[in-house]
Amino acid sequence: MTRGFYIGRFQPYHNGHHRMVDRIASEVDELVLGIGSAGDSHSRHDPFTAGERIMMITKSLVEYDLVTYAVPIEDLDRNSVWVSHVQSMSPDFEVAYSNNPLVIQLFEEAGVEVRQSPMFNREELEGTEVRERMIEDEDWESLVPGPVTDVISETDGIERIQRVSETDANGI
Ligand SMILES: Nc1ncnc2c1ncn2[C@@H]1O[C@H](COP(=O)(O)OP(=O)(O)OP(=O)(O)O)[C@@H](O)[C@H]1O
Ligand SMILES: NC(=O)c1ccc[n+]([C@@H]2O[C@H](COP(=O)(O)O)[C@@H](O)[C@H]2O)c1
């Protein structure tokens, strides 16, 4: 039995993440999705709460024959203990999946096997691009799994990101 761990901010969960899960699902029996920067929400860069991201992921992964766990992981000011922090919050896992250079380095230094994946259609399948389209009222729905559209509709997510983007001077 192999359990994997895949962390991201998932702001929002999009088809690039879903393609990566598709690949991971062929390699593990169980998968932990780490909801990174779990305390962040209501900004252009991080509009959605941890709870909303859990809903997006849980509903999108129903299609897979895979046991999944979504675990919120708050950020720490100290990178040196971040892997221990992750391990304290997550079910045990044998392999971590990430394309983020810092995440890869921290796991490898802690002796955890890391697997990367190709970037799928990165011109469009990028959280920043999805959020820009949400703010500009352009087509973002085609970039995310159907259940994510439903969750964003149910939680008035477009109204939120458009409203915070008027006052939030930080980058998208
Ligand atoms: N299109 C993609 N194909 C494969 N992996 C991806 C893709 N987009 C993101 N990832 C990977 O998924 C993980 C989580 O990514 P993250 O939630 O930061 O999404 P992002 O699209 O990079 O978002 P943002 O633009 O908000 O930074 C990272 O390891 C990232 O490299
Ligand atoms: N010191 C820390 O808190 C620390 C270190 C490395 C990654 N992280 C988090 O892990 C997640 C990585 O996800 P992304 O690949 O989506 O950036 C982010 O939420 C990031 O903030 C946190």
CATH-level-2 architecture? 3-Layer(aba) Sandwich
List each distinct ligand once.
Answer: adenosine-5'-triphosphate, beta-nicotinamide ribose monophosphate
Strand content: 5-15%
Intertermini distance: 39 Å
Please summarize the sheet with the most strands. Answer: 5 strands, parallel
Which ranges are low-confidence, i.e. pLDDT below 50, for 5 or more consecutive residues?
none
Instruction: Indicate the radius of gyration in whole angstroms.
Output: 16 Å
Helical coverage, percent range = 25-40%
User: What would CATH call the class?
Assistant: Alpha Beta
**CATH-assigned homologous superfamily:** HUPs
Give the SSE order as H and E letters: EHEHEHEHEHHH
Q: Which structural class fits the helix and strand makeup?
A: alpha/beta
User: How many domains make up the coordinates?
Assistant: 1
Catalytic activity: beta-nicotinamide D-ribonucleotide + ATP + H(+) = diphosphate + NAD(+)
Protein name: Nicotinamide-nucleotide adenylyltransferase
Family: Belongs to the archaeal NMN adenylyltransferase family.
Enzyme class: transferase
Describe this structure in words.
- With 172 residues, the chain is α/β, with parallel strands linked by helices.
- The chain has a single domain, classed as HUPs (Rossmann fold).
- 40% of the residues lie in helices and 14% in strands.
- The protein has seven helices and five strands, in the order E-H-E-H-E-H-E-H-E-H-H-H.
- The chain has helices at 15-25, 50-60, 82-89, 101-109, 127-135, 146-154, 157-167; strands spanning 3-8, 30-35, 67-72, 95-97, 113-115.
- It has a five-stranded parallel sheet with strand order 3-2-1-4-5, sandwiched between helices.
- Strand 2 (30-35), helix 2 (50-60) and strand 3 form a beta-alpha-beta unit.
- Helix 2 (50-60) runs antiparallel to helix 6.
- The longest helix is centred in the first third of the chain and has 11 residues, at 15-25.
- The model has no long low-confidence stretch (mean pLDDT 96).
- The structure holds adenosine-5'-triphosphate and beta-nicotinamide ribose monophosphate (NMN).
- Beta-nicotinamide ribose monophosphate (NMN) is lined by residues 7-9, 36-37, 75-76, 79, 82, 98, 100, 102-103, 106.
